[in-house]
Amino acid sequence: QVCVVFSEELQCWCRALVESVRCQVGGCQLGCFLVDYAKCCSVSSENIRVLAGVFAKIPHRAKKCCLHCTKPLTLHIDYCENTAKIGPAKRWDTAAIQHFRKLLE
Predict the structure, then answer these.
(1) Three-state secondary structure call for residue 83
(2) Where, if anywhere, are coiled coils annotated (predicted)?
């Protein structure tokens, strides 16, 4: 369900999907995906509201997605043997992300 949260970074109310909830001593923090900005943010539980009326029917501008069966790769350099091989990585490196964004443009 889409709700409305106040984003401290953007300084405005935004439509969001709640992805996670972390309860602490001072209150709960919600991990949210802003559906009109394609950003993830953390919001306190006081800054969330129910989305009312016709605003709930407006389609999202962004959807969270992933590349099917595409795994990140990186260049592994062995300085002792003076070799370099491409192998699996735990996360995408910055150069790969920038290259993918240029392809999308």
Answers:
(1) strand
(2) none
Instruction: Read off φ and ψ for residue 94, nearest 5 degrees.
Output: -60, -40
pLDDT in tens, 34-47: 988 888 899 998 99
Query: What's the CA gap between 38 and 64, in Å, rounded?
Result: 7
Same domain for 48 and 13: yes
Q: What is the number of residues in the chain? A: 105
Asked whether the predicted pLDDT for residue 67 surpasses 80, the reply is no
**Is pLDDT above 80 for 66?**
no
Are residues 22 and 52 located together in one domain of the fold?
A: yes
Burial 48-73 (b: 16+ CB within 10 A, else e): beebeeeeeeeeeeeeeeeeeeeeee
Q: Of 15, 5, 90, 92, nearest to 56 (Cα)?
A: 15
Domain count, the chain: 2
Q: Please state, for a pLDDT cut of 90, what percent of the chain lies above it.
A: 26
Q: Whole domain around residue 28: which residue ranges?
A: 2-57
